[in-house]
Design goal:
9 helices; about 40% helix; 8-stranded mixed β-sheet; two-stranded antiparallel ribbon; Rossmann fold
C-alpha cells in the first residue's frame, strides 16, 4: 500500500517496471494510479500533459485518437466537456459511460473533426485544449493539424501532438501549413523529447517513439512571421542515423530509384 505522502511506508514495494513509463510500478501507481494505466505515453509526457491541463482547466477539449482511454482519463478530469474522436467503433463500446463529461465520436478524423469544429464555432463554444494522437502517417497528422487550425479560437487554445520523435509523424508536423492560420502564435516540436529504445531484447529496439509537440493559438492575430521551434533537431538527426528508421527509409529510397530506373530503361527500349 502507498502512503498519502509517498511510497516509503510499504516494505514490499513493487519495483518491477511499468510497461509504458518504465518506472517502478509502485512509483508509477503513486504518480498515475488515478488514470487508466493503458496510456501510451512516457512519464515526462504524462506529467507535462497533466500539469498543462491543470493550469488551463478547459471548458472544452478535443482528443483525436483515443485508443484505450489513457490520456482521455486525464483530459476528462480537468475539462468540463470533452469530445473524443476515434476510428475504432469498439472504442465507443469500451469507454461509453466511464466518463460522464465525454462524448465519443466514431469515424476517421478527416471526416469527423471538421463538422465538429464548425458546430462548436457556430455555438460559440471555446475549445481550449486539443490532443492529436490518431494517425501515425505523415499525411494523416498533417491533415489533422490543417483541419484543426481552421478553427478561430475564442479563448487561448493549446494543441499537444504526440509522437513528434517518430520520423513519419514529425515530418507531418513540420510539413503542416501552420502559417495559414493567423491565430497560430508558436509551434514547439520538441516540447517533450521522445525515446530511442536501446534495449536489444525488445521488438522496438533502435526505434524512435513518443515525443510531445505543442502549439498555441490565440483569438488575437499574430503580428510577426511564424517560426517553428525545433530545439531537438540535432539529437533527433544523430539518433535517426543510428536507428532502424534509417534502414527502412534507405530501403524505400533504393526501391523507388530502381523502379524509376526500370521505367526509364523501358522507355529507351521502346524508342530503339
Amino acid at each position: 500500500m502507498l502512503s498519502e505522502n509517498g511510497i516509503s511506508n510499504s516494505s514490499s514495494c513493487d519495483v518491477t517496471r511499468s510497461k509504458y513509463t518504465r518506472l517502478p510500478n509502485c512509483l508509477n501507481e503513486f504518480l498515475f494510479g488515478e488514470y487508466i494505466e493503458d496510456w501510451l505515453m512516457t512519464q515526462q509526457e504524462r506529467m507535462a500533459l497533466i500539469n498543462l491541463l491543470d493550469r488551463i482547466k478547459p471548458e472544452c477539449s478535443i482528443e483525436i485518437g483515443t485508443l484505450h482511454g489513457g490520456s482521455l482519463s486525464a483530459i476528462s478530469k480537468f475539462s468540463q466537456k470533452v469530445y473524443a474522436l476515434d476510428c475504432d467503433p469498439s472504442c465507443k463500446e469500451r469507454l461509453s459511460g466511464i466518463f460522464p463529461n465525454v462524448e465519443l465520436i466514431t469515424g476517421y478524423s478527416n471526416d469527423t473533426l471538421p463538422p465538429l469544429l464548425d458546430n462548436l464555432q457556430q455555438m460559440g463554444v471555446p475549445v481550449e485544449f486539443v490532443l492529436i494522437d490518431a494517425s501515425h502517417t505523415t499525411e494523416g497528422i498533417k491533415q489533422d493539424i490543417e483541419n484543426l487550425i481552421k478553427y478561430v479560437p475564442l479563448k487561448p487554445l493549446y494543441i499537444a501532438i504526440h509522437d513528434s520523435f517518430m520520423p513519419e509523424c514529425r515530418k507531418g508536423m513540420l510539413d503542416a501549413d501552420w502559417a495559414s492560420s493567423p491565430y497560430v502564435h508558436f509551434v514547439e516540436i520538441d516540447f517533450i523529447p521522445g525515446r530511442f529504445n536501446s534495449d536489444k531484447n525488445e521488438d522496438s529496439y533502435r526505434k524512435m517513439t513518443c515525443g510531445l509537440a505543442i502549439a498555441f493559438m490565440s483569438p488575437l492575430k499574430r503580428e510577426k512571421e511564424l517560426k517553428l521551434l525545433v530545439d531537438g533537431e540535432l539529437p533527433f538527426n544523430i539518433l535517426k542515423e543510428n536507428s532502424s528508421h534509417k534502414k527502412s527509409i534507405t530501403r524505400y529510397a533504393t526501391s523507388a530509384f530502381r523502379k524509376k530506373l526500370g521505367s526509364v530503361k523501358r522507355k529507351i527500349k521502346s524508342y530503339l
